[in-house]
């Protein structure tokens, strides 16, 4: 064991009995046998044990040690917090001379704090089981295991957990791909094509098709009399965040613009009838379906 320099109050002594009643003072460590200190008079007992000198003042109950190691007090960390659903994720910077950390929490700024977890070797912690809508305040404190000394508290941070409400699109994405949001490991993004059929995921969502099974486009362009029609399905459960727009162009080199024809539906099948007469001489017409999503 390491012996550290310093003054240590071993006990409190009543003023009426200070410095009296001691017939001997002994020191022992994990590596030395019990050693008697010498009565120096005036209530002071001192002696050398190994490389350390001990001086005990019976009037104050204080033991002073010299010749030992210098105690190491760890520094303070910088703390940050991120609120989640019934939880707060904490992370902090490494404190100088720290071996472990204590996470403290309060429900009022400045404390008093309660220890949430002690002896953490890492520099992150997820505090779970919290009440959504309640603001929590946190600090972390570093500890040096050799000296058993604690550093100062870190900066205080606050976070308020909130319940997560997923959109219809996110719930669909979870049902199809097992994730609520796009990740690098799953082709679940709106503009990605999981099944490689040429229809991106947001289009599969909007048209109600299976994004994991390749299928031909359900969008059909046809001619009805002198006009073109475009027929397409919409998802069975409408999502107000989706906008379906049929666009037209006179040639494939000119930009498509929103058509001004009429749209009718039978159930979830919609048919747009264009208002450009394609029977006229020299008229060419191209239609396409555009789907956009505006996150709520």
Secondary structure: elements and pairs:
Layout: E1 6-9, E2 26-27, E3 35-36, E4 38-41, E5 44-49, E6 52-57, E7 62-66, E8 79-83, E9 87-92, E10 100-106, E11 114-120, E12 124-128, E13 136-144, E14 149-153, E15 157-159, H1 168-177, H2 201-207, E16 220-224, E17 227-233, E18 242-249, E19 257-258, E20 262-266, E21 269-273, E22 286-293
Antiparallel strand pairs: 1-7, 2-3, 4-5, 5-6, 6-7, 8-9, 9-12, 10-11, 10-13, 13-14, 13-15, 16-17, 17-21, 18-19, 18-22, 20-21
Characterise this structure.
By secondary structure, this protein is mainly beta. The protein contains two helices and 22 strands. A five-stranded antiparallel beta sheet has the order 1-7-6-5-4, with no helix packed on it. Strands 10, 11, 13, 14 and 15 form a five-stranded antiparallel beta sheet that branches. A four-stranded antiparallel beta sheet has the order 16-17-21-20, with no helix packed on it. The longest helix has 10 residues, at 168-177. It is rod-shaped and about 125 Å long.
In short:
Helices cover 6% and strands 39% of the residues. The protein contains two helices and 22 strands.
